[in-house]
Amino acid sequence: MAYACSPGSGFRRFDAFAAQAEQTAGEFRGLPADCGPAQALAAFKRAAPYMQIPAGVVQLIDVLFAWTTPLDWRGGANPIVWPRNEKLARKLGLGVRQLQNLLDRAIRLRLISHLDSPNGHRGGQRNADGTIKWAYGIVLAPIGTRIEDFRQTAARGMAEDAAIDALKKRLGAVRRRISSLAQTAIDHMLVGTAADEELALVLSATRQMKNVRDIDLLTGCVEQMEQRGRALEAEIAAALVEIQAEQMQSETNIITCSDADECTHSTTTTEPQTANAVTSSGFPEGSRGEGFAQTRTVASSVEEDLEKHGVDPAFIESVSPELCHSLRHSQHGWGDVIHLAERLADQAGIHKTAWHEARRVMGERGAAASVIATVHKYHAGDVRQPGAYLRGMNGKAQKGTLHLGRTFHGLKDNRQSHLMRAMHDGPDPRAMGDLARRAMALVLSGRTS
Question: What residue intervals traverse the membrane (predicted)?
């Protein structure tokens, strides 16, 4: 009675997958004339990644092919191999149970079939010419039957790979382009371009599309990013043309003034001596002392903002003593600050046109304060191109959006924070600029020998 309840216990299970594998094996009529077993195996291996065939199954088929000969794949023959499970497991470096799972998976994928002997054992014998006389075991005929399917699948997969690679290269190119445009916007302080948002979007798209193989989805993403990149490039190019036009206009004004016969140049005294005025091809020498005569009769909005926030020469010196240690300590005059700013601009590589434009837009005091703030940030590593940064400040000043007073108070707060951290980390928070300033004060007061 127990046998009647489980008649197939211990035998190979026959299901829909096994039936399909046997049907595929029965359709084998030999390999094409231009194809041998090596070519059939190669076609299967090329198609395997695109058919989601596990690597373990691919290795199993590769090992099984080693027991076949070209005669087994001719028309009318049946490619059967009969290694025992223990021997096959050793070849693959697996356990017997792991091998059985791979064989079952190969049947589900219609890659092999089984031809069992009456006693359930594998075995076979070859004739003297190498043809199979009789055999029971693992049938590889399904691979021969599906040779064209493997070829077409491999061709489609490789074509998709090429298309996907091309699309991802385009996405990488637009990512690099938008990154470069975003850096240009930062260097030239171009506001309103939303370059940072475009950069974040293209970086997110690159991450999301990393493992995507949907060509339509990938194409739509790449085309959209390219379109946004072109729009950003056109916007930044227009802004740069506008900046260049302003610089050329400024240079034209300066050259016209320098070439005019009746042009009066600024001097360092309260009474201009036009007959003895001297001009220089570099930065003009600034004035020193309290007797500096402003070229503007009315303070600029930037100078009014500095005065509103209490930013005077003494305040500027306290914010950046490393840069301002050469200022006189008996009295602090804007003439000294302007002279220092001219020298710092020259040392930092700021073009003279940017300095002249700053003087025209912000006034002498505003320009000097802007240069010192720019060089201070340049030395701190916050600014990469001081000339471009100063031109950006000129643009903000023209629009009335430059708040230089708040900038200096922010620099002062940052300096105090650094000093507090240094005091916490060590006993001596004094900067080199502070030491130089104190030494200069001692020299000027005659306290040193």
Answer: none
pLDDT per residue as tens digits for the range 209-261: 988 888 999 999 999 999 999 999 998 888 888 878 777 776 565 555 444 44
Q: Six-digit token pair at 238? A: 């227009």
Instruction: Classify residue 365 by its DSSP letter.
Output: H
98-102, 118-122, 314-318, 394-398 — which one is most confidently predicted on average? Answer: 98-102
Q: State the DSSP code for 428.
A: -
Nearest to 312 by CA among 409, 431, 387: 409
Would you say 189 and 388 are in contact if contact means Cβ atoms under 8 Å apart? yes
Q: Could you tell me if 178 and 202 are in contact, meaning their C-beta atoms sit under 8 angstroms apart?
A: yes
- 318-353 burial code (b ≥16 CB/10 A, e <16): ebbbbbbbebebeebbbbbbbbbbbbbbeebebbbb
Q: Which two tokens stand for residue 338?
A: 């302007």
Non-local CB neighbours of 157 within 8 Å, separated by 6+ positions: 46, 47, 49, 50
Return the closest-CA partner of residue 188 out of 431, 391, 403. 391
Output the CA angle 344-349-353, nearest 5 degrees. 95
pTM confidence score: 0.51
Residue 6: HSE in the Cβ half-sphere, 13 Å Cα cutoff: 4
Q: Which two tokens stand for residue 391?
A: 């031109």
